[in-house]
TrEMBL record:
Matching InterPro entries: KR_dom (IPR057326), NAD(P)-bd_dom_sf (IPR036291), Sc_DH/Rdtase_CS (IPR020904), SDR (IPR050259), SDR_fam (IPR002347)
Domain Ketoreductase: 7-192
UniProt cross-references to Gene3D superfamilies, sorted A to Z: NAD(P)-binding Rossmann-like Domain
Recorded family membership: Belongs to the short-chain dehydrogenases/reductases (SDR) family.
Gene Ontology BP term (one): monocarboxylic acid metabolic process
Protein name, as recorded: SDR family oxidoreductase
Entries under SUPFAM superfamilies matching the protein: NAD(P)-binding Rossmann-fold domains
């Protein structure tokens, strides 16, 4: 089993939802974590909550994955603080849903720009330090990356693209000892798409479940790579 205590991670979109759940699991495992958000206030608030969990260090960074210079600046801050980067969780994402007749150009651009180009920017900004650490990249895709549905043209396109992108860079980067995986969750209890989590979400995947999964992946012997992982609720409600 690989020891992860003391390793350093970057989590994009780490101030809430799945990203926060992953950060929480990493902190409990002794890792140092940098979380990014487009809002410095949101990142700071999440960092305060995380710092109360364990003795690891948390760095809150305002950054927009759609801007590669913003991602490079975030990486520079991480290297300045810790001198290394071991793990990258490309998690930041959003969704606009509706018929192609209703979907606007702005909604399309924001979805593709965040969910797909944003991951490209994150990976490009982190490759060099990950080569040194023989690190790990994990992208958060979705079951919508293999299953299409009405009203999902932008979201499906972004997640189908992300799934393919991740599998391709896995082949590009493994010669450097960099491992790459994608996690593809189904229904997760988060505020995604303006949802309000509550007791009605008890059947859904919880953010701590994804966090536990990520930590387990990081601990697997480096000779073995689960490259694509589909995750779904065990017992969804019947309709």
């Amino acid at each position: 089993m690989t020891e992860i205590e003391g390793k350093t991670a970057l989590i994009t979109g780490g101030s809430k939802g799945i990203g926060f759940g992953i950060a929480e699991a990493m902190i409990k495992s002794g890792m140092n974590v940098a979380i990014t958000s487009r809002s410095q206030d949101a990142a700071d608030e999440a960092a305060k909550r995380l710092q109360g969990i364990g003795n690891s260090e948390v760095l809150a960074i305002e950054a927009d994955v759609r801007n590669i210079d913003s991602q490079k600046d975030a990486v520079a801050k991480i290297l300045q603080k810790w001198g290394k980067l071991d793990v990258v969780i490309a998690n930041a994402g959003l969704g606009h849903f509706g018929s192609i007749e209703e979907l606007t150009s702005e909604q399309w651009q924001e979805t593709i720009g965040t969910n797909l180009t944003g991951v490209f920017n994150t990976v490009k900004a982190t490759i060099d330090p990950l080569k040194i650490s023989k690190g790990y990249i994990i992208t958060i895709s979705s079951l919508a990356g293999t299953n299409f549905f009405a009203g999902g043209s932008a979201y499906n396109a972004s997640k189908f693209g992300l799934t393919g992108f991740t599998q391709a860079i896995m082949l590009d980067l493994r010669k450097y000892g960099i491992r790459v995986s994608t996690i593809m969750p189904g229904s997760v209890s988060t505020h995604f798409n303006n949802h309000e989590p509550g007791e009605q979400d008890a059947w859904k995947i919880q953010i701590e479940d994804i966090g536990e999964m990520v930590v387990d992946l990081l601990r697997i012997n480096p000779r073995t790579l689960p490259s694509k992982i589909e995750v779904r609720p065990t017992t969804p409600p019947s309709h």
